[in-house]
Specification:
Length: 1254
Amino acid sequence: MSDNWDSGTAQRNQGITLIAFLTALNISLIVFGVQTGFFLLLRNKLSRIFKPKTYLVPERERTESPPSSPWGLLSTLLRFRDREIIKKCGLDAYFFLRYLQTLLVIFIPMAVVIIPILVPVNYVGGLSRNFSTNSTDSSNEVNSTDPQGADYSDPSAPKSNITGLDTLAWGNVRKDQTNRYWAHLILAILVIIWVCGVFFTELRVYIKIRQDWLTSAEHRLRASATTVLVSGIPDKWLTEEALKGLFDVFPGGLRNVWLTRDLTHLLDKISKREQIHLQLEEAETELIRMAKKAQLKKREHDEKQARKASKSHRPTKGEKLERQKREDDAAKMQAEGGQGLSSGDRHEVPHNLGDAEAEVETGARRDSITRPSTGHSVAAGFSRLTEGIGKGVNVVGKTGQEIFGGARNITHGIDNQIETTNGFVAIGPPQGPSPAPPTRGSDRRRVQLPDDKDLPRPSTQSSNHPRGLGSDERVMGASSAQALHSHNGSTVSQDSMLKGESVEMRQFGNTTRRATGLDDTVLHETKRWYQFWKPPEGGYISPVPQGYEGDDFPFNKKEKTFLEKVKSFIPFLGGEELEPMEYPKAYNEEWKEDHDTGAEWEKWVKKSKRPTHRLAIFDWTPSWLPGLPFLNKKVDTIYWCRQELARLNLEIEMDQKNPERYPLMKSAFIQFNHQVAAHMACQSVIHHVPRHMAPRTVEISPDDVLWENMALSWWSEWLRTGLAVGVVVGMIILWAFPVAFTSSISQVSTLTDEFPWLSFIDKNKMIHNIVSGVAGVLPAVLLALLLWLVPILMGFLASFKGAKTGAQKSETVQKFYFAFLFVQVFLVVSLASGVLQTLENLASNPTGVADLLAENLPKAANYFFSYMILQALSVSSGTLLQIGALLNWYIIARIMNKTARNKWSTNTKLPEVNWGTYFPVYTNFACIALIYCVVAPIISIFAIITFSLLWLANRYSMIYVNRFTIDTGGVLYPQAINQTFTGLYVMELCLVGLFFLVRDQDGEVACAPQAIIMIVSIVLTAIYQLLLNKSFGPLFRYLPITFEDEAVLRDEAFQRAQDRRLGLAEDSDDDDKEGESRRGGDGNEGTSMDGTDDKTRRGNKFTNLKPVKGIVHASTWAARGGKSTYDRTFGIAGKGLEKVNKYREERRQKDLEAQRAIGEALYGGFHDEIEDLTPEERDVLVRRAFMHSALRAKRPTVWIPRDDLGVSDDEIKRTREFSEHIWISNEGTALDSKVRVVYGRAPPDFSELDIISL
């Protein structure tokens, strides 16, 4: 496509014909029908794909399974309460759905008002009434070079060729009827007023909902509610003591302070270790499976020879199936039992609060906590998945006295689950009678803390400051015993160990440094007459941090050399060099590959068949690049990975024990005792020098921190921001060429005029109709493919820019991606006359932007009709069908997932939503619809269809499919509303240009007053948006003080209720009655259609424990576990259609039970809700969570399958002989009859504490 097309050539041709639009609509309807039909057929059979949130998430996030009928599903979606969406999906999901709902609120009244007025105004008595063909109006009164009739100044130009939907649009008004444009002006002003009014009310509602959410008792318990990330801290204040002395002025004082260190080198090692660990795990699994396959092949050959010798017949199909079933059952029993060998386990992975306490206290090896070995006894606190999975098993301790689990009786003999559960095998039956359903006060997988003597004591060591707060320091306000801080950056007040006072109710006062007299605070330096930059004598000195001891404070660092100072200011080259550290040998150097002589694998596999790979030449070489012969060295994968993994494990563990080697960064996490203090700290002026101790960010979730960006300095962030913005601008400009090409395809007449060799299209009517139909669909498809890669690049640029949290990353992506989409999907498509030509015209005549939009936008209306309807029908049905999940589960996973860990990850990981790239797509739709709502009024109909279908599809996806582990608190919603103002501004600019282009019969400007009024409306809209953001802006993120008193009252009431639930306080009779009335009044339990207890959404999940939730229909296969093998095979099909259907239903129930067993195994029985923990337990978890991820990283487990040949056991034994620094285990795994890996538990290095959202 030539970029120098004459815009007049484009204006003389219609965008796309009615045939093209109808073709696009028909194809979209077919796609919609097919995808929706498959969804309705499969959704009740594949719970893992279409409703995993009914079982495969923590209990607080679970939803009841929807009804099986389509109308019941639709009714459930429409009746699902907004508060339940907020509770189970978070504010981001709720406000996204509310945004779509807001767009419907905008466009439905607009369609009702605008279409009945403007369509007759444009069509009746217009330039053309030709609604279906491309014939030309024969009236001699019409002369127009633009199909919309915008330019009447050239009588010699060709006549109008307005057809199709364009006859209902702006350009169909005749030049002798220009007074009709007053209707367009009035309705445009009403649109502006209506949209601005809706946005005002929406921002008010947003603030109210967000404030209610922030001040809810459940949220105020979380660490994110009281933690502030402070950046740009000067060296003078970069100590825990100084920060405590500075921030304790806010009410309630501080609870914890975490200084951040530049652990980039350690993070790089951990990342490399993860790659090598997975590579070794895959290689070991492949070797074991190769040996097993060879053994089966040899067994088959031997049996064949034996049959020849004995002249016996071949085994029948039934005998083969019987043997296969026995082998599968043996593999399941082996995986369920959790038996196996393990070597190198240092018991570092925290499985309960005691482990977390020790991790926070020592920061290194936790030898002080003695924990039982895997498979023999059960640790106190969280029951380990390695010793018994979920509620469905009774875990018996070594002495037989500790029994966990619940009333879940999941059958033992579920067969044929490999295809349904991706290698997970169901849990075996309990060995004894099931205990009664436990209550809150019971020991059911209960969180336990150590005794008071085991609680962390204030450390007497200090890594970064020479002294702590002395006993003689003055305290303003309530007295408080201030704790010293250990080197890991965490602190706990001694008040937390006082009986009767919770961690969260500690009171702190404002401490000040020790001064001997007033002279210490006065500046005595003499000012010279020429030193104009200094203040007058007798002033006060600059604020001094607590613990300040002169020039050597706070680090006692050696002075940098001149070269080091220069390097520190060079971008991407600076940074302090780490002190060299000598590491001991991590493995037995005397051990050679020849020592594998006599290994079990040698009996079945040739050495040349062992897994191998080629090493990269340089450390920075990407791992995905293939090695080349004679250039990259070929090594045995298992031997090389063992050596590297042992070395990295040892180095990482030693580095974690010595974090003081790494330099402190100029940022810190500060946790307050009160939520209001955190919000006050963010809104206050903290430092007396500009740009210091800023920015400050509240609502920081521990799981949302991007630790790799915490080491970036302020100047590095500025440079990265400039580079990222430059790349985005370059993408917007360069991407315009292929996007403009997709737009040009839709203009068939333009293509035939530009390229004569395509003239055969116009000569044949059939070919012309076919090409026109393709032209209606192909551009939208090509555009979707072009835009697929952009979100990935935007996410990378947002991380590169230096975002400290996932929420900040999402906000940056939202800004970048919306700018990209609006330019590429709207402007470039509309201004397809040429990107460079357009930029050149704007550079020479910046004031001509209105004329440019007016000349080009109207003719692209039909393109956006087809684009929006195609997106609405295909995207909504595709969202329901979960095409990506189906492909991943049934194709990619079966090809790629070979190890137990891969299969476990695929089973337990649910799809998530990247809000930064999700919002802009729909914001761009809204802008397009607003721009054309007056120029082409029927676009409101397409907007209503689009947003209605997308609202329903996304509502189902949010409630039943997608999981939201990180929530920004809805901060993307006001940004989306502000971005939607772009549509208003472009609509106003376009109307200004169109009004000025309208000519009367004398060739004079006919609509100048309308244009002037629209210019005034642009100014007023901009002023309105500025005032709106200025008024609401502070409340978008921060809480006002007026909420604190009410929030405290709710906290106290909530805590009393929690004490009763946790058994910490006795229930009175009145309380019991009140609780019963809240749970249902008449005592009847509501049950969903699939047997799920209705109380799982409201009330006590522990007292409402029910067996295997979510199984469709009451009669499950588990209740029929005693049926014979014959009744569970296809042989029953011969006894009648009724029995066949019964068998299929049973089989489906078995598959559903097997799938749901995974959810019970992973999440069942845990106190995964933070409100279920005591204040002391919450504080332990929080202090662990905000430790740097590099310091919390534990030695990974090489989790390999166990086999009956002994290859796996032998590999563990030889790995132990090679090095003690490799954790390798085959517990809870096995190989089935088809040499597929099966597992019955979570990986040994999985920590149950990670499922608790802080």
